[in-house]
User: Fold these one by one.
Assistant:
Number 1:
Amino acid sequence: MNNLLIGQSGGPTSVINASVVGSILEARLHNEIDRIYGAHYGLDGIINEDLILIDDKMNVEEWMYTPGAILGSVRFKIDEYPNDLALYERILTIFKKYDIRYFIYIGGNDSMDTSRKISDYFKKINFDCKVIGLPKTIDNDLVETHFCPGYPSAAKFVAVAIEEIYHDLIVYKEGRVTIVEIMGRDAGWLTAAAKIPSINGVNVDLIYLPEKPFNMDDFLNKVKSIYDKKKMVLVCVSEGIVDDKKEYILKHREFKPEDDFGHLQLGGVSLVLAEKVKKYLNLPVRAIELNLLQRCSMHLASKTDLKIAKKSGMYGVRMMLKGKSDFIVSINFKNNHFSFKMVPLIKVATLVNRFPLEWIKGDSDINDDYLNYILPLIKGEIKLKYQNNLPHFTRIIEK
Amino acid sequence: MNNLLIGQSGGPTSVINASVVGSILEARLHNEIDRIYGAHYGLDGIINEDLILIDDKMNVEEWMYTPGAILGSVRFKIDEYPNDLALYERILTIFKKYDIRYFIYIGGNDSMDTSRKISDYFKKINFDCKVIGLPKTIDNDLVETHFCPGYPSAAKFVAVAIEEIYHDLIVYKEGRVTIVEIMGRDAGWLTAAAKIPSINGVNVDLIYLPEKPFNMDDFLNKVKSIYDKKKMVLVCVSEGIVDDKKEYILKHREFKPEDDFGHLQLGGVSLVLAEKVKKYLNLPVRAIELNLLQRCSMHLASKTDLKIAKKSGMYGVRMMLKGKSDFIVSINFKNNHFSFKMVPLIKVATLVNRFPLEWIKGDSDINDDYLNYILPLIKGEIKLKYQNNLPHFTRIIEK
């Protein structure tokens, strides 16, 4: 038997299930693959022998239109071989027991590093199993690919949210300073999406990415001068902005909580800025975190993103069946046309593709190069199936 | 000349513009009304003689599909006559100058109180002007009406957001305690919407409304026991929950900020609960505020809500033309059919319609009576016009 195993890893997105679906649909077309398994909770499911048999009766097409990670996900790092030897051997045992000859791992740069380590190990011990990675992250921070599936849908959500929030904010003659916090720890790609509504005439006043040092005094001066003019200010800021010493602005808080809980670790920089605006400018202010909705708003997914995610899985399976291994499926875009190529995992693993500095205008705006980049990626709306007047989603994990 | 003046007041919703549009379209049909004006920023626009002439060339149908408040809004309270006499006289001057004989004010209970005061004043001084209110609030807390336009769309947003967030949360074997904070200061209607996804099998573990006292120890015990079983907990909580002394739970924080800024005043109770979960249970926890998106997510508006908002304006105009005044347009629902009636403003002004205690199951769940109530209200999706792959909105205020 020659079986395929698929695992999902890292934070969910709206289209990570489309990558799974594409892989399955393609695999079903080829006799070289006998059975398809899903790793329940990624690497954790492999180590704990918790695999899901995905047989032909499963209506996997439905998974396309469900956010999250249909097989379950995990944040799990494995050390470089021969460290963590027992783990490597455990993985091998399970792969042998289930005749896994093809392994697809879907995730971001850490997951690509995991795939690379497993692939290296298999080569070292001469175990014949093709290992590939499929790109996925709302952060869009993988190198060597035009974009990462998951990002365009998150960007589209951010753009629509900003457009709608803007129409809420302009209703008062004397408005507020509104600070919207957007995900993206090290790379500003998702925050840059706040620029997209400008194509419909909705302009954010200040956009701050982690790629340029954030200066608090300068920020406060700008806020004051904009508020004086317009009686409202709309600021969009990445959760990961840093000062000129590369320290997170999040640490510049006015009050220090006793406890160290999730929300106040990362996430929360909008509160820090709101504190400063209140304390130093005494203006009415509101902090908004867009939070998880950025990565799970399936109903606003980009049709292009969904389609490319699916096709990346199909391409990956076809290449594995041609004997290729040890690569990530990378996306090209040329002459308005998407295509795929193989890039060695080692060239991608752990690296971070930051937002291009030359696309940042001054220190708080984004230029047209970004708009030219993003617009083809957010093309098209999807039509969800509704059930009881709510989107119909599907799942195999019940909690 | 006999002219109509329309004003919007209080927090925006996704369908408050539909109420304006219905009023305008109906008014255009009747020769008794010569001109239609909009008050720019509500009462503020009247006092400052800032009126917008809405002529026949204006394509107001487009306003239907734009969130916010197309004419601008205001939070403005006027004192009981003869206090604030100068304000009353100023309003009269403007009404006389612009020949306003019909006045529609759209808002919540405070705005209905304003309408009632103005109407009383006009009667007292024998100024012939019909004055009516149209109901609007995402809080659904007006009395004497089956529902308030704006609420069903906000409820639909909450339901979809919870459905999508749920699918994000279940992906990890060891998940978090997630606390979602929902708007509604005094009434739990919007938080109750977290129950809606249960009709699609998506169950929130704990739902807390302001109508029942919140007990922190009991909350922590429940969270612990659910987490032990499922390794995740999803809690939805109204921003306005109170303890048994009717004090906001928001005040139970572990750390006190030096400054007193918007976010930490109301809004923020999810952070307080997250602190407690971290400190006393030491579980991984995340706080999510759904924030402004609850009232401006036009793209998820309920078609039923939008339609009824529009019709409420049409009904109001027809009744004024029959000589009626001093009423709010109230909505009936019987045998699956919506209709309208007039209710005197005095019976609605300043009163709060709280969520029925008998619809709360135990202290942290909602029963089927609520589902039977809400499901007809969230029926139907709207189709927005898209422009550059984003919803196309329109506005007359530019900032």
Number 2:
Amino acid sequence: MALADHVLAGDQRSAARLMRLADDLHPGVPKVLQALFPHTGRSRIIGITGNPGSGKSTLVDRLISHYRNEGRYVGVIAVDPSSPFTGGAILGDRVRMNRHFNDEKVFIRSMATRGHLGGLSKSAGEVLLIMEAMGCDPILVETVGVGQAEVEIAGFAQTSVVVTVPGLGDEIQAIKAGIMEIADVFTVNKADREGAERLMADIHQMLHMLDAPNGDAETWEPRIVKTVAFRNEGIENLAQAIEEHARWLERTGQDEQRRLKRERLQFFGLLRDRLDDRIGEILEQPEYEDWDRKLLHREIDPYRLAREVLDKLR
Amino acid sequence: MALADHVLAGDQRSAARLMRLADDLHPGVPKVLQALFPHTGRSRIIGITGNPGSGKSTLVDRLISHYRNEGRYVGVIAVDPSSPFTGGAILGDRVRMNRHFNDEKVFIRSMATRGHLGGLSKSAGEVLLIMEAMGCDPILVETVGVGQAEVEIAGFAQTSVVVTVPGLGDEIQAIKAGIMEIADVFTVNKADREGAERLMADIHQMLHMLDAPNGDAETWEPRIVKTVAFRNEGIENLAQAIEEHARWLERTGQDEQRRLKRERLQFFGLLRDRLDDRIGEILEQPEYEDWDRKLLHREIDPYRLAREVLDKLR
């Protein structure tokens, strides 16, 4: 249990080692995670999503400095789509965060999505848990805004920040529409560019389209903040908006609701992983040889096969 | 079993009724699907994905006419993200397909994704099965290229077509990068616009970046076709490229590989649905009351709870 103790003391090497062991599905890992679990679940998780080119990584870099100045231990999970096209550019961005690499109170972990547009890799929940056990608070989770991962992060996070930039066409906005709906805070980054005011107005208008006319005083109206991350402008305002959202969550009981949602998601993820393993083992038994080929040629019935597999799960 | 017979005879009303029953989780549905299953699995499934504004729906409309001229029964699944923003525009596009609505050999079904950027609704596999049982071949599956659904469709489809248009910025291309990798055929639609040649060249270049230098003669080099769907130009070339891909699949044995992949995906989807139901029932038992709240407050251990739930699955 020495490893758990070192992680709880905030040691980055031990945490990194535990994450590697988890990736390798080392059989000793569940015991360690079990020991960490009681010390977790209290950190604030902030999702930050934006397209490549939005300056999102620079923004995260500035936020790290902001929270470090408050004396906090900052965790960062940078989620990359594992695409040969975007991979290069995004890794380039990451380099900007390098200056925090020697700070022993900043812990940065990169993670690939499952498939190119897929959701989070199944270890995301474990990485969050380990970071919380280390004492990281807040934990910033950076995603590139192209798919399922953003929605999953929004399920884990208490606050979701969407990074936009002026000068992208309407079609970009349409693509991002789905992401707009998860935003608690918008930032118009590169706000020194032409079109910043127009974009602010557009976001306002979109939010009003979304607004359910229920007159509910408990509704959070997403904040819109201007930043020029490159010149470190507007970062305090952004942090302030995130803080306001946190206070609103607590005041309305939404904080517990969002944390409960995260518990459910993580638990179902855990169950799913275990089940996938067992199902894989069952289908590898000799009697199920070529099950997929037999299904394809309609020699067996998927409904009967499903019943058999479920019966064997025990 | 009258319903199954009517579906097998190609009757659209019966098929629509079965799909509604499936949506409502009617207990009689699995028996009907079981009866249909042996008559399915042979249709060609063609995925067509592109951003809003790419003219994708017009293109699908033209392809329907093309296959109707060949005397084929055409199935279409139009997958919509259920977003209040994009919803309007996309439904507008759909109207263009209306002229096929009275054709008793064209069966069109709209379907929402699960969540805004989520994957296919769990009934997608059932809808495909029912369309195949009706005799639909090919089945065109239209998606808007914003997320997980495209990747799932690519798993079901034998051929994936990606629709691009000239005049979108680099950032759009970056977003779409993940989708590029699933394409068997590209079409540059609205090819009468400025920038069409440039876009063709860009796609060529991207494909060469992807190309693994293994000198494998069995590798499919994605076709790039120009279309102006609005004026019905290039549709024959597009259909020809799709046909070439189909012949390549068969010649190389890849056709069976892709169909096997679909069987596996559909079977795991089936299993997952059944398991989700059972797990939901277990967690509703009195002894697990407030399980999520107890997890949140670290009063119970998720690893132990997971083991208990798995033990009860039987």
